[in-house]
Amino acid sequence: MNIFVNRPVNGLIEAPRRVAAGDLEPAGSRYSHDEIGQLARSFDAMTVDLAKARAELNEWAETLEQRVERKREQLRQADARAMAAAQMATVGKLAASVAHEINNPLAGIRTYARLLLRRLSAQGSLPADEAALEGLSLIESESARCGEIVKHLLQYSRPGTEQMADSDLNQLAREAARLIQHQTQVQNLRFQVELTPELPRVRCHPQEIKQMLLALLINACEASREGGGLFLRTRPGADGYACRLEVADEGCGMSPDIADRIFEPFFTTKEAGKGVGLGLAVVAQIVRRHGGRILVDTSPGHGATFTIDLPATPPEDPPSDARGGPDGA
Fold first, then answer.
1. Of 2, 99, 132, 166, which is least surrounded by CB within 10 A?
2. CATH classification at residue 193
3. 81-118: per-residue pLDDT in tens?
4. Using H for helix, E for strand and C for coil, what is the string for 160-220?
């Protein structure tokens, strides 16, 4: 009686307790061929089904958690883009409200400072005149710097007014190279221009593209050591883009935390008075307005390579973010 009834019944009583405790493994005992054995087999089959269901639920929970994390990251990126857009709007309003008010008096100050410099220079070099000359030179140079700041604010905050045109990027690269040639000679840099023949033409604002290349080349010169290399290249496009532009140097390079911020407005690593941190922000805006992307590959002591990919025709609604991922920006 104990072997054929009590033991199987006790096993059936213990089984629900194991399941309630989370143990979904089948009992694994031999089943009798009577009704109690049939009940035991059915219960073990039920625990197997429960185990499969729990595994599926756990898998779905992990998948759902990953999806939630992806959505959370997308929201963070959207918030960052919204903040950048709000910052751009603020800068645009600031530039629009102060540009004309500041430019006119600045031009007057600079003009009169130049005139006084010429008059004092023509009168001789008395000690008092030398001090006046030094003061006037400072006024003239600082006025010019203020004018550059206002100009960069305007360039950052509003698109170019010129008409787009089908342009030869090789020709624009040659023109930018000519403008930087003197500075490369002064610094004794090895300046190499490598242009891909028969490059597809792209629809763009030619002056903006030339301005973008010039800004990158000037930055590369400032980061380069005497005798170092400076490179300007054009390449066929990649990843669906029509053309690629590259500006590379063999200078000091940048750490990852600095490289991640170089396109932010007003971020600069230059000494006070040497820059306001709008040059690369303007570059990124130009790339964005043309529906392209800009990537930077750099590390401390190994120079930097800026890569700009441009489509054959800019989209009517350019993407809100023209930069690449963390490894590119």
1. 2
2. 3.30.565.10
3. 777 767 666 766 666 666 667 777 777 887 888 887 77
4. CCCCCEEECHHHHHHHHHHHHHHHHHHCCCEEEEECCCCCCCEEECHHHHHHHHHHHHHHH
